[in-house]
Amino acid sequence: MTELDAYLLSVNDKSPTTIKNYKSMYNKLRTYTGKDIAYTSELSIIKIINENETNLNSKQALINIGIQVRRLNGL
Q: Which long-range contacts (CB under 8 A, 24 or more apart) does 44-51 make?
């Protein structure tokens, strides 16, 4: 099971629109990091987001995804 599959399974109680948004943001963050999010440090995630995003709402959403995925993996 991929990291994305496990993440989506953990949020399957959300609405379809929310799941779609989470998936989109996950893919964006995964593209920025170039690897699974669980293997990226918290400081690196914050630095990458600050370098690539200007919109505050997008930054917040991406940080939220990073937190959720790292928690899912016990980090």
A: none
For residue 47, what pLDDT is reported? 96
Q: Is the pLDDT of residue 32 over 90?
A: yes
Q: Could you give phi then psi for residue 74, rounded to 5 degrees?
A: 75, 25
Q: Identify the DSSP state of 38.
A: G
Which residue bears the tokens 């918290």? 42
Helix pair 16-33, 56-72: axis angle to 10 deg: 90
Task: Write the CB contacts of 25 (distance below 8 Å, at least 6 apart in sequence).
Answer: 61, 62, 64, 65
Q: Output the CA torsion sign for 34, 46, 53, 8.
A: positive
pLDDT of residue 72: 93
